[in-house]
Amino acid sequence: MRLLNKFILGLLILWSIHSCGFRDDFDEVPTILEINELSLTTKAGQGADTEAFKDVWVSANGDLLGVFTPPVKIPILSEQDEIEIFAFAGIRNNGDNQAPFQYSMTSSEVFSINRNPGETITKNLEFEYRDDIIFEMVEGFEGSNIILNDDRDEDLETNIERTTDVTRSGNYAAYLEVSEDHSAMEVATQFSYNTDNIIATAYIELDYLSETNMLMGIIAEAQGVVAPIDFIVMPPREEWNKIYIDLTLLLRQSNAESFRIYFRTVYDGIDGNPQRVYLDNLKYIVF
Asked: Whole-prediction pTM value?
């Protein structure tokens, strides 16, 4: 990724020098924008500020410079004394590590820097959710009334539980546990979510840590017909992982008028020990 960034930067610098938007006689020593950290700031009602921003998409005076993985130093050549920077948070959509994706649920960071050839300007970026985001569901598992309380596996001895032992943030997380005797577990949201509020995009955000695979899907409801649709499998993780699940296309293709969200896990151990999947900071957001 680093070598790719350097290669892209080289091409961008050559393009910038010959671009019709720049003079041929300006100083070819670039101003350096150094970006070291990306973070998320949340407001009341938006849940925890956990994030997994992998990249930053950067434009200068309207020209896209590229997609960069911090920490990074970005050379900027400009004929203008003031350089307006637009920066967007980058994620891995649906957990696909091979595809950088601009996260549309957060707003851009906009700021200006002065053109000073040879100078390094350091900026850490704090992103916020867009003002027009609707938070349909924010579940941090801090309360005893868990939103994933529809037990769908028909095993009366299994149910989602809360714990203080393993958490991503706050005091509580939730977990599913499967074993040889109770080999499958599935839970769903108690309430349905209407699709009327989705103007453009719908996402689920989730922090999870797991000892086995976990599947996420929706129970689509349309014209009296109810149909579960498996969507994405999340592999085991030894450390907390944030995943951004894009539901937009799935909901359109399903023609769902409303839907519920479910999670399923199946025991695949070989040593007889129970396996757990931990969940924290579950959000369903749309705009």
From this structure: 0.89
